[in-house]
Amino acid sequence: MTKFDPNRRALFRRLTQVPAQPVPEISYRRPPHAKEEVHFLHDCNQCGDCIQACPTNAIAMVEGFPVLTSSAHCDSCLACSMACKSNALDTSQMQVRVSSACSASLAAYCQSCKEQCSQDAIAIESGHRPEINSEQCNGCGACIPACDFNALSLH
């Protein structure tokens, strides 16, 4: 049997009484249409093509990977996604969703989102909320800032 050591017992008591602090996650805002972080880091080959393609210089390299430096400068033109050969930036899965913040009666008069859609992917029928045609929508997000009610989001 081992000899009793009060210091060891005190150590274990302190460890069980102090809540464990989670390891802080470093979170960066990735360029538009970036996959989930784990998949993005796996697929990105760190070539920098997205940075070169960005006409507004909204993307920079941080720790070897592209990061969106300021969303105010990003105009969702898709140039970075088109330049990405590794498919770390993938527009094929992006969809615009309409929340309940957009009421059917309001949508019939507003139509701001529809007016901003260059792909004609938004249909608004009388008495209904906007419907997004996923076949036509390219995921650019131009409709999102047009909505005064923040009813649109890109997922």
UniProtKB/TrEMBL annotation:
<dbReference type="GO" id="GO:0046872">
    <property type="term" value="F:metal ion binding"/>
</dbReference>
<dbReference type="InterPro" id="IPR050157">
    <property type="entry name" value="PSI_iron-sulfur_center"/>
</dbReference>
<dbReference type="InterPro" id="IPR017896">
    <property type="entry name" value="4Fe4S_Fe-S-bd"/>
</dbReference>
<dbReference type="GO" id="GO:0051539">
    <property type="term" value="F:4 iron, 4 sulfur cluster binding"/>
</dbReference>
<protein>
    <recommendedName>
        <fullName>4Fe-4S ferredoxin-type domain-containing protein</fullName>
    </recommendedName>
</protein>
<keyword id="KW-0411">Iron-sulfur</keyword>
<keyword id="KW-0479">Metal-binding</keyword>
<dbReference type="InterPro" id="IPR017900">
    <property type="entry name" value="4Fe4S_Fe_S_CS"/>
</dbReference>
<dbReference type="Pfam" id="PF13237">
    <property type="entry name" value="Fer4_10"/>
</dbReference>
<keyword id="KW-0004">4Fe-4S</keyword>
<feature type="domain" description="4Fe-4S ferredoxin-type">
    <location>
        <begin position="128"/>
        <end position="155"/>
    </location>
</feature>
<feature type="domain" description="4Fe-4S ferredoxin-type">
    <location>
        <begin position="34"/>
        <end position="64"/>
    </location>
</feature>
<keyword id="KW-0408">Iron</keyword>
<dbReference type="Pfam" id="PF00037">
    <property type="entry name" value="Fer4"/>
</dbReference>
<feature type="domain" description="4Fe-4S ferredoxin-type">
    <location>
        <begin position="65"/>
        <end position="94"/>
    </location>
</feature>
<dbReference type="GO" id="GO:0005737">
    <property type="term" value="C:cytoplasm"/>
</dbReference>
